[in-house]
Write a structure and sequence with these properties.
The protein has a single domain, classed as Pseudouridine synthase (2-Layer Sandwich). Helix content is 21%, strand content 28%. Strands 1, 2, 3, 4, 5, 6, 7, 8, 9 and 10 form a 10-stranded mixed beta sheet that branches. The chain starts with 7 loop residues before the first strand and ends with a helix. With 251 residues, the chain is α+β, with helices and mostly antiparallel strands.
Length: 251
């Protein structure tokens, strides 16, 4: 799938480069997917002809804005902004049920350790603070029976993570019982099956649509935005959400 794939570059100067990472692509090599041979980091390096330094990450099934530095010093400066939580991130997700108009999820998360990559890490860490704000952009009620319900309801939410814990958005939406569609780790299987069979959706419906960060040298605020892929656009059309998303987004 990724052989000869050209990554969409959202922004590039002599210090930074940002791409719209597609769903299903790892950011870098990982023992978690030890048989995977394609990574955004290596593909971008080959595409632009120079080494790149990741300053944050997106989960493999999540799409959207992914920022790299072009040298180690710039990577350090950008990393400091992420560590200080001074950057602004926005995600779009399609979730089960009708969400409230807005809300704040303040729910500490236990540290997720991988058996292979984290085998030497402390195993009994206390749960870490995790905070996510959200606002609802749209609802839909479908004439599709599922389980004990005669109709199925979904919501489109914009998520603003205030911290950066592993799988934070997916785990927080599960915590409030509004699981993200297509989530095979924390979601609901019956809903994932429905969107696969009815709408041909085989991905996690979570997209990093915007990242706002200060340029490390000019101090200019950069607002990097990534468009949705064909699967998201099809869901928007099927749910009659097309044409109303852009005007409702907040950055």
């Amino acid at each position: 799938m990724w052989n000869n794939y050209k990554l969409e570059i959202l922004y590039q100067d002599e210090y930074l480069v940002a791409i719209n990472k597609p769903s299903g692509l790892l950011v870098h090599k990982s023992m978690i997917d030890k048989d995977e041979i394609y990574f955004a980091m290596a593909m971008l390096r080959d595409q632009i002809g120079q080494w790149v330094y990741p300053v944050h990450r997106l989960d493999k099934p999540t799409s959207g804005v992914l920022l790299f530095a072009l040298d180690s010093h710039t990577a350090k400066l950008l990393g400091e902004q992420f560590f200080a939580h001074t950057i602004k991130k926005s995600y779009l997700a399609v979730v089960r049920g009708y969400t409230e108009e807005s809300g704040l999820i303040d729910y500490a998360l236990s540290v997720k350790l991988d058996k292979m990559t984290d085998k030497n890490a402390v195993q009994d860490k206390e749960p870490e603070e995790a905070v996510t704000a959200y606002r609802t952009l749209a609802h839909v009620e479908l004439d599709l029976p599922l389980g004990r319900y005669e109709k199925t309801r979904y919501s489109l939410v914009q998520l603003f993570p205030k911290t950066g814990r592993k799988h934070q958005l997916r785990r927080h939406m599960k915590h409030i019982s509004h699981h993200i569609l297509g989530d095979t780790n924390y979601g609901r299987g019956e809903h994932n099956k429905l969107i696969r069979e009815k709408y041909g959706c085989h991905r996690l419906l979570l997209h990093s649509n915007s990242l706002s960060i200060k340029h490390p040298y000019t101090n200019e605020e950069l607002v990097l935005q990534a468009d949705f892929d064909a699967t998201f656009e099809n869901i928007f059309q099927e749910f009659s959400w097309s044409g109303t998303i852009g005007e409702k987004l907040a950055f």
